[in-house]
Amino acid sequence: MIDMKRDSRRSLPSLGLLLAVAACGGETGAPAWSVVVDTLSNGAVRIVNTPPAEGAEPVWWIEEEVRIGSLDGGGPATFGEVRGIGALPDGRIAVMETQSQEVRVFGPDGVHLATYGGEGQGPGEIGGSTGLMVAPDHRLWVPDTRNARMSIFDADSGYVTGYPMRLIVRGYIWEGVMRPDGGVLKPSILLDEDRTRVIRVFDATMTLTDSIPLPRQQELDQEDPPTAFVFEGENGTSYRSVPFYPFSMSLIDPDGTVWSTTFADPSYRIFHWRPQGDTTLVIETNRDRLAVTPAERDSVMAQIREEFPGAPAPDWSKIPDVKPAISSMHLSAEGQLWVRRPSTDGLTHYDVYDRDGRLAGGAATALGVWPYLSPVVRGGEFWALVTDELDVPYVVRGRLVPFECRSGAAAAERETTCLDR
Fold it and tell me: Which contacts (CB < 8 Å, 24+ apart) does range 293-299 have?
């Protein structure tokens, strides 16, 4: 019998193969998804994934293995606000804690090993970090927007060096990605009349080498945009985003391509395209749409009334009847696309796609994964920021196990499928 904890760091290529076997029926005997592949007029490949009529359970369960954090008590394992997580090849995890402006390094067992940085302007200090990246040489890159630099730390020895970094678009969470050659890709804008969206290309010393234009976004009526409620007050005009509106989302791939959804389109459709080039892949998945319930609508309306007391009632019909089919997207270290989707069972659900757009399988977890910081997925490991019922933040490492082998599964189910795992 294989010890699942000791065997949790299997490579994702083998996991991806097992996912594909399970998703297609394969050895598990599960009902198969249907996959239709065709080519559109522009040459893009379209993959349409349809679940079986009987429904489809997740192939994998993300089971908690290590939890770092506490409700109180202070110390490096107590977090106020986390904006970056980086997993090192040896199992250590680096956490960017922004309230203290510290990089904290923990061992595979969750034990604190080192703390670097701290608020300040000097070398090795951090003024306003928005994230963290792990470079190909395994050093930790910390974007520091307030000090206008990228600070580099070694997980063993601390601060190494820093490079000047000027940014126009900062964002709450760092949106840049590390290229395989150690350079950085970062979405931004040009200060021209059209405020052209671009991808900034930096080399391994944060020297700007290129700015790749992106397609223009749809222009909206600023007086009454469909995406926002507009409130006029003594202090001017205030905007409140419309709950459940299907905003577009995009994800830069380390290879320089882009994964995105379409603005105002709530359907389950993802595009993979090259900047200044054509769309190469369209992924469509036919899942049932989830309605915005009357209770959910009443709740968000009450919240908005509380935010703008005494203001005339806005046009509540802007609130959609259905939820966007896609909540967020991120890439695993091996390049598989993980798509988080809304659910009604209290679990966090992901659909996992291979690079060719075929559904490799689904993953679910009881962890309350914070939706605004992308998890780190590598091999059989899943690192994420989670919050509990009191909104206390924790950094958790989960491991992917076959769904029928999850803790709490029926004994007979586990006995027949998990003995040789």
Answer: 296/244
Whole-angstrom distance, CA of residue 384 vs CA of residue 376: 6
Of 66, 71, 110, nearest in space to 389 by CA: 71
Confidence of residue 412 (pLDDT cuts 50, 70, 90): low
- Rounded-to-10 torsion of CA 280, 361, 320, 234: -80
Q: Which residues contact 209 (CB under 8 A, 6 or more apart)?
A: 183, 201, 202, 203
213-217, long-range: CB within 8 Å, 24+ apart, which pairs?
Answer: 213/275, 213/276, 214/187, 214/258, 214/275, 217/248, 217/263
| Alpha-carbon span 51 to 53, nearest angstrom | 7
SS3 413: helix
At residue 352, the pLDDT reads 96
The whole-angstrom separation of Cα 402 and Cα 59 is 6
| pLDDT tens, position by position, 114-151 | 999 999 999 999 999 989 999 999 999 999 999 999 99
Rounded to 5 degrees, what angle do the CA atoms 248, 321, 215 make? 15
d(CA 145, CA 165): 8
Highest mean pLDDT pick, 72-76, 108-112, 415-419 = 108-112
Report d(CA 135, CA 141) in Å as an integer: 7
> Residue 387 corresponds to which tokens in the numbers above?
């919050």
pLDDT, position 11: 35
